[in-house]
Write a structure and sequence with these properties.
about 25% strand, about 270 residues, four-stranded antiparallel sheet, alpha+beta, homodimer, about 20% helix
Chain lengths: ~270, ~270
């Protein structure tokens, strides 16, 4: 794992993707090619792709759509990534069958289908360079682990067959920097934007911050407040909730890294 | 037509929709229920709806998606409009057949299909309250006519069968207020946001500003600069370009008025 920008061996999204494709990087992608836009992957059969895209439109906080491939194509738009292949360019994948994780995979070449449609949804790792630049801590980078993620008691707006709970990522922030954290991340709505909740995890139905549903736990120091951002893993919790027959996603925290920079997405 | 906010007889989106549905309003909707979010309507058969939604994702400036109905349903999400019916609640509709306007209609009850999917795309009329509040002129409101719209020489990003030219709306702005016009409208990306072009219409392939492709011409006074915003009528130019067999839209300038306020969409 990467502790700071100086230790990052990959200076561009393309370099990071090449390392992943060659098998030289298989870990979480937080801190990798810092400043390049990172994305959640959701691969679905074409027959439910339209309803899923409607679900994303209705739930733009957890599911901000960056790109959607043509049916059967594993290649994102060239504007997002040159010479990329979504079957090989993520460090780890999860294969969902009937809503359960059936396998963790290093590539999905053998699982690709002619009717597969791939969605790229913005990931909050994207705004971590801006957080660091603003003097905000990013605990999972300090700890060299994955970000902690939690299923909440909040329901998404349903669309067609798709419904389920909101998933959030959590970052602890010193109380005197909470306003700053809201302002910095609000500039990036395409990668989840401002937090959905500040403080008491019980209000989101989270019982224990040290037991995340996805990713790793991180310490919260005295004087710090947990901040919760909408997370693209929501799509995986939805698949679980509705027992979706077939879906492939990234393994939580193991994202697709694009060629675009965070600053291209900043809104103000 | 409405010349200023005081003359607007409809104080809410719902009141304006009721007037439209009852046949009491059949004109363009600029200036109506000023401050409420207005939307373009696109109705397509389900079999091309997914490709059209992918087209919108790739072209968020002209086609910012606000809502997509379930196949067969003419009712938008309750968050956008309570008790609304997209078959009756717009002042005028255009029925496209093989890419040509086959009919202008006051309602589309008799043309609705079981496989129809309705898209609501943000409309720039929404940010005209903010323009007026900032001291910017809105010439088509002053003149009591429709906004002028033009097909341009810029191509949209294609998706599936959908491809075609960008359409823009034009508002003249005194040169000393051009920066202000950019800043004010940039706050509303869900309704086209900042202009796509400032100044010389020839750079967009527009030969004569007094001969718009849709809507009405407006005067441009000495010292004013034409500003061009991406326009949802792009979807109609696309239908024409690809000779789409069947589509229903609003008549340009005759929009769907929602229950949400412009301020809910402002990003900064």
């Amino acid at each position: 794992m990467i502790l700071d920008q100086n230790a990052d061996p990959y200076t561009t999204g393309q370099a990071a993707r090449q390392a992943v494709r060659a098998g030289r990087w298989a870990g979480p992608t937080a801190g990798l090619a810092l400043g390049y836009v990172q994305a959640n992957l959701v691969v679905l059969p074409q027959d439910c792709a339209f309803d899923f895209l409607r679900f994303c439109v209705r739930n733009p906080k957890p599911c901000p759509v960056l790109d959607v491939t043509a049916p059967g194509s594993p290649h994102p738009s060239s504007g997002w990534a040159q010479e990329a292949d979504l079957r090989t360019d993520l460090p780890r994948y999860w294969l969902y069958e009937n809503g359960q994780v059936a396998a963790e995979l290093r590539d999905i070449v053998g699982h690709w289908r002619d009717d597969a449609v791939a969605f790229l949804l913005g990931c909050s790792f994207t705004f971590e360079r801006a957080m660091l630049s603003a003097g905000l801590p990013v605990r999972h980078l300090e700890c060299g682990c994955n970000v902690p993620m939690f299923r909440t008691n909040r329901c998404c707006q349903p669309a067609g067959m798709f419904q389920g709970p909101l998933v959030v990522s959590m970052r602890p922030v010193p109380s005197h920097l909470v306003v700053q954290a809201v302002q910095v991340t609000a500039r990036y709505p395409a990668v989840h934007g401002a937090p959905v909740h500040i403080g008491d995890p019980a209000q989101l139905g989270i019982a224990d911050l040290q037991r995340p549903d996805y990713g790793d736990p991180v310490p919260i120091y005295p004087g710090e407040v947990p901040l919760f951002w909408a997370c693209g893993v929501t799509s995986q919790a939805v698949a679980q909730a509705i027992r979706l027959p077939w879906m492939i996603t990234h393994a939580p925290g193991h994202m697709f890294i694009t060629d675009r920079l965070d600053v291209e997405l900043a809104i103000a």
